[in-house]
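Complex record, three chains
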Amino acid sequence: MVEGKALTLQPILEISQLRKVIGGTIVLRDLNFSVMPSKIKAIIGPNGAGKTTLFNIITGMVRSTGGTVLFKGKVINGKKSHLIAQEGISRTFQTIELFGNMTVLENVMVGRHVRTRMGLLRSGLRLPGVKMEEKFILEKAQEKLNMVGLFHKANLMASTLPLGETKLLEVARALATDPELILLDEPAAGLNETEILRMTEIIGKIRKQGMTVLLVEHRMEVVMGISDEIIVLSYGEKIAEGTPDEIKNNRKVIDIYLGEEIEYA
Amino acid sequence: MGKNNFRTLIIFTICLGVFPIFIQSDYFLSIMIFIGINAIAAMGLSLLMGYAGQISLGHAAFFGIGAYCSSVLTVKFGFSIFAAFICGVFLSVVMAVAIAVPTLKLKGHYLAVATLGFGEIIYIIFNELLDITGGPSGFSGIPHITFFGHAVEGGIKYFYLVWAIAILLLIFSLNVIYSRIGRALRAVHGSHVATEAMGVNVSWLKVQVFILSAVYASIGGSLYAHFVTFISPPTFSLFASILLLIMVVIGGSNIWGALLGAGILTILPQYLTAFKDFDILVYGVILMAILLFMPEGLLNGLTSLVKWLREKR
Amino acid sequence: MTLSSQILQFFFTGLTVGSIYGMVGLGFGIIYNATTIINLAQGEFVMLGGLIMVFFTTVLKFPLYIGCPLTIVGVTVIGALFEFFAIHPLRNASLLTLVIITIAASILFRGIAMFIWGKDPYALPPFTLGGPIIIGGAVIMPQAFWVLGASMIIVIFMGLFFGKTIIGKAMSACSFNPMAASLMGINVRKMILLSFALSAGLGAVAGVVITPISLMEYDRGLMLAVKGFCAAVLGGLGIGYGAVVAGFLIGILESFTAGLVHSGFKDAVALVILLFILCLKPSGIFGSEEVDSIKKL
């Protein structure tokens, strides 16, 4: 049982003393937590708890008022969104942000942009590398579509997809960036039972492939079923952190959020 | 670049290739040459407007920079035609970077007015630097283009030169549109936020397209100067920039539309000589009408119309 | 003329011209505040104000106190019609399209003006009679006081309107959050129409007071629009007093450039200032970046 190498497992994401004040409201209050690699960590909490703001800060869309975000040991808060994506973080959105004017396949291909290099000049001149890169982009995109089960809709316009499939498409697109950390913002919202099962399966596949997942979700079946750890936020503060079992039985959490009537799998 | 575009390109090239065989009159050839020159500038602007979603109200300035560099550097400073042409492109790139970098992070209308201001400043410079540009009385004596000792004179030769360059630039444009760059640009139209989140440096992309469009205009300007051998500032005024804009809008801000728009707006003035000064009224009416009734431009409007008529039967 | 009186002269000329830029800038700001659109046809309202006033006084021989309000009302109506026929139908279009349509409108107005009035400049008699006034060796036309006075009154009026009246505050609310505004019972549609009408009227006032000094021709509008926009941005887009102060600054700098450096470069002054400001502090002298980023429309 002795490993050949000493396994010093560093957290892939570290949030320290993160603060966000908007106007007079403290949206995030000295938040501290970390996420270990290849784990699924869920963030739950009532609406307005600051969950999406947290995601926006991590992905560089919003500046924090204080505190740091460390990704693989590097400070990333304050960096621009596209640079953070290059570092290996990608996300889905709570309000669907698909490229409605493009096909399903093209949406995922855009996800490939960050890992490819052919620029304006080389593309315009159609240098030999361009064709190869395009083929590679196409293959990878098809692979991701297959993984979420949308391959058969590859050439349809993204705007024609029903809600459940738009969520899957966003996941496929986020996966196309080959992230190490993927942020899923309420992937199960508005989905029916079958769709939720499919989504949960996919999230499991993501972890199996070695990626880390940070998940914001309200549907308890998903959260309890798949997370390794859960953080509970309320009014921007972390009020509990632990395994699903620990959280289920946490008095504070039940009072503030879960309520005793809620049944979960 | 897609099968449809490839087919259209081949047909288009062939038609252009045989054009001078059937039409030998200098008048029609020079109209086609002007269409080609305008098309080059319009294609660049349509990449900027249709794909990068930005407006430039000063693009005639880049056209003018190309024209004046090609003229002044060859006549007054003895540059070779090619060297002067490259200088025009280079200067346009520098100017484009100077405007685009600070303004592209601002909202769209800031860039619009910044380009307007830039265009006006350049126009004033063309007018005021009398010693260099000849000022309002213009600049003459621009040499014809020579390829290895043979002068490209006369309608037919220049026709082929201009359109060869135009077709090459068209191919370049289509390649860009159908590449990952073009996809990223289209994605911005779908969702700016998501595009950035997917790792696309949107601002830099827009700057690049702006620079590219300036280069196209500069190329057009140089070709213009060597054809007409006399240039003067009014050709590069705000009005010229607006005409260029109308060409793109008529076409519907897509690359083939730019060619159509260039064609229409080069031929139109020939018919408007009857109206004399009221051509600006006509242009205003045309622009308004297109925006209100056919905002996707004539090309798309016509294809939709054709589709609609077909369904009616 | 001694140097000091020359400088005083440039200063006064600049102040006068600057008031016009300020008023045009104000007009930009009003529409921007209600809609975040930049109305590039703004300068045409000034041109129309001047030329229509010429029509009333010279052709119909109306006295000033009748011609003036009629002109202002007339141009206000034109502004409202412009919003109704050209802006409102495109309300869901991209900002790009909206800017282009204001360009189209400005071309159209110019073309119609050329059709009606031709290319020649027209004059108006000054509002008050009397020769030039000499202050410290510098020559000032009495009309200049009308110009300055008009701009001061307008600034005060706008300040009161937007700061104190319900309608004014409602208009500003529209661009910050049109959805919330309409939920509050504000008729966003009417506010937008009103903003266009108001800035058209404003332009008309500017046109009416400046024509006795600098004449008016069909194509003055564009340059005025560009310089007025420079004033608006320099002062902080949407900030009324900012546009006016900036207008004075630009006018004075322009005047000094024309007098001391070279008159050909005078038009470039405002533009160079614009480019500088856009690079350094796009929110303008009195503006703030945070506020700018909140505007939603």
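Note: Chain A is about 35% helix and 20% strand.
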